[in-house]
Amino acid sequence: MEHPQAGDDLLRPRPAGRGGPHGAPSRGASPQVGGGPRASGGTLTATSAARPLVVLEHVDKHFGDLHVLKDVDLTIHAGEVVVLLGPSGAGKSTLCHTVNGLTPIDSGSITIDGRPLPTTDRGLADLRADLGMVFQSFNLFADMTVLENVMYGPVKVRRRPRAEAEEQARHRLARVGMLDHADAMPAQLSGGQQQRVAIARALAMDPKIMLFDEPTSALDPEMISEVLDAMTDLAESGMTMLVVTHEMGFARRAADRIVFMVDGAIVEDTDPETFFTNPRSERAKEFLGKILPR
Ligand SMILES: Nc1ncnc2c1ncn2[C@@H]1O[C@H](COP(=O)(O)OP(=O)(O)OP(=O)(O)O)[C@@H](O)[C@H]1O
Ligand SMILES: [Mg+2]
User: Fold this and answer.
1) Which of 46, 170, 173, 288 is most open to solvent, judged by the fewest CB atoms within 10 Å of its CB?
2) Region entry Disordered: which residue ranges (predicted)?
3) How many domains does the chain have?
C-alpha cells in the first residue's frame, strides 16, 4: 500500500517556523508549482511537487437540461493547495463530487495519480480511501468516540493493527488539537471541534489529496478560525488540497492557486495575489466586489 509523503510529514514534530517540514513545499516559495503543468519546461519533473495528482480534461456534466460542468480542465499537482471559488450554483460541489466518483461525468476524463477514475464499486471504494473528504455537515459516527472515529478507516479499510492505528490516531488528533477529547462522543463536541476530528479522521487514511467542500460554512463564527488554522497547518505540511470555501482570508493565505468558476466553467486559474488584486474577468471583479469587505 502506498502512502503519500505528506501523510508521513504529519507525524513529524512541527517545525518552529511556518514553513512546513523538510521536503514539503512551502507556501509562496514555489511559484512554479502553480504555473500549470510543466510550466518551466520540465525542470520540475524531478520533484514530487510537479507530479500531477488530479487531472480533469474536458469534463462535462449535465443534470437534466442543466449544464453544470462545461469543458472543465484542471490539474492539481502533488503538494498544491487549490481553492475553488465562485458564486452559488457555479458547480464547485459538483466538481468535488466528480473527483471522488460520487457524481459520474458525461464526457471527458479524470485521472487520480495517473489512473483513470474507477467505475466498479470496489474501485471507487479504493479511490475514496485515497481521498480525504471533509464536507459542510459533520459526518462523524455518532455512536463511536472521537478516537474510534479516527481509528475506524485504518482498522476496517486499511487493515492496520489496532495498536498501530491507535497510536497514529492519537498523532492525528494531536495535530488538530483534539487529543484531549479522544474519549468524547461527537455529540459532546462543538461544531468546530467535530470538524477538526473529521479532518483527523480523513488524515488517518493517509490520503493522497484532501477535498474540502465549505467545511466551515455551517459553523458559528467563533469556531471558524480553529478549523481554518488546522487546514492552514495541513496546507503548510505539503498536503495536496482542493478546497471550496467562502473564507477569503484563508484562500489568500493558504492557496497556491485560485480557480474561479461561474456557471460550470473555469473563468480564472491564477495565483491568489493576482486574483484578489487584479482579476481579469468582469465576473471575478463582480464576485470580489460582493464578497470582500469594503
Ligand atoms: N443532484 C443534482 N440534481 C440536479 N441538479 C443538481 C444536483 N446537484 C447540483 N445541481 C445543480 O447544479 C448546479 C451546480 O450545483 P453545485 O452544488 O455544484 O454548486 P456550488 O457551486 O457548489 O454552489 P454553492 O456555493 O451554493 O454550494 C446548481 O444549479 C444545482 O442546483
Ligand atoms: Mg456547493
Assistant:
1) 46
2) 1-44
3) 1
